[in-house]
Amino acid sequence: MHLNKGKYISPQHGRPSVRLSRSRFRHRFERMKITIFGLTVSSSWGNGHATPYRALLKGLSKLGHEVHFFEKDVPYYARHRDLLSSPFCELHLYSDWEGARRSALEAAAQSDAVMCASYCPCGARIIDEVLDLSRPVKLFYDLDTPVTIGALERGQIEYLRAEQIPEFDVYLSFTGGGTLDELMSGWGARLALPLYGCVDPDVHFRTDVPPEYRSDFSYMGTYAADRQQKLEALFLEPARRTPAKRFVLAGSMYPWSWRWPENVKRFEHVSPTDHAALYSSSRLTLNLTRTEMARWGYCPSGRFFEAAACRTPIVTDWFRGLDHFFDCRRELMVVSSAEEVTHALSLSDSELEHMAAMARQRTLDEHTGDRRARELIRAIEHASESPQRQKARSKVA
Fold it and tell me: How many C-beta atoms surround the C-beta of residue 244 within 10 A?
């Protein structure tokens, strides 16, 4: 297989740093084998990994690439599995690494690229074995970069060790901006590039409105202690102030013993197949950013893109770099108080619909799984021609 050489351009404002000339990209070899070791693609319950993985892997499949995804079959996800088989990748569920090790490493050794990812069980051990392989381009995909950096600083992390970072050809990050500089200057990454969240517009689009999901304002997100203050200020307090309006909260792990406003309807879990229905049923929806993610910036949640693809107006807290992904005056509303949320709820349908239509078009142009798949392939192609890999090839030869 022949991989084309890319041109490296230094990162600016979190933008991808690898670009290929159009002629070379057109003539690249059309098929790669890619092996991934990740948290989960089979269950969307209580995690933000499965949905963007599915969009990305579907994009890779549409480009003609063969993908193998290895996932530990943990009881928590097994009880809530919503993807039993996949038309866009070979899904390998294994009960323990020792039992899967031989076949997994055989698949990895035959691959053009191997990607290890954040929160993969036994991740650091798997990385040790992957780094010993000579053939594939080796990538780490961090869907939790600020959390990872904090854990590395505290020495409390199981899926990655600091000394492994410089051994990867590329470190891909769900967040851009300063995290990319930190990974390269602070942790020795050879090349750090953003690979942001994304959406599958074949799954997320405007759809019929089920009565049970209908709301004036919705929020979908798993409980997180560091988001709770924002949830109180930007969701629960507006619900108390507007008792005639209907609010919907969808997400697992919330303490159900809380005293909830009477106009808040709760769903412990909404399957990805119903995300579009929930968003389409919402006159407005809320995005909240975890504290560690917001501190680094350039950290759009996948929920952003899902809601926008469904043409649902978005209200969000602010983080640095948000305006890299959306026009914050025309495509969404940034709020910091209950008063600003209640003002957003008072806007006319025509104002909200115009804003949502613009955000949807931006999402379809820039934030789909197909777009991220092309960015990933370009990163692999660029890494394959790096001086380190050329030197390694010559030694093997």
Answer: 6
* Alpha helix positions (H), the chain: 22-26, 50-62, 75-78, 97-109, 123-131, 145-154, 178-181, 228-231, 237-241, 272-280, 291-296, 302-309, 322-325, 338-345, 349-366, 369-384, 387-396
Enumerate the domain spans of the chain: 7-198+369-396, 211-366
Sheet of strand 192-194: strand arrangement: 90-94, 66-72, 33-37, 113-117, 137-142, 170-173, 192-194
Is pLDDT above 90 for 366?
Answer: yes
CATH code at 7-198+369-396: 3.40.50.2000
7-198+369-396 matches 211-366 in fold? yes
Tens of pLDDT, residues 224-273: 899 999 999 999 999 999 999 999 999 888 986 788 999 999 998 888 78
Query: Over the stretch 44-69, which tens digit does the pLDDT of each residue have?
Result: 887 889 999 999 999 999 999 999 99
C-beta of residue 293 within 8 angstroms of C-beta of residue 270: no
Superfamily holding 211-366: Glycogen Phosphorylase B; (3.40.50.2000)
Write out the DSSP string of 153-213.
HHT--SS--GGGGGGSSEEEESS-THHHHIIIIIT--S-EEE----B-TTTSS-----GGG
How far is residue 18 from each of residues 318, 348, 379, 380, measured CA to CA in Å? 28, 42, 6, 10
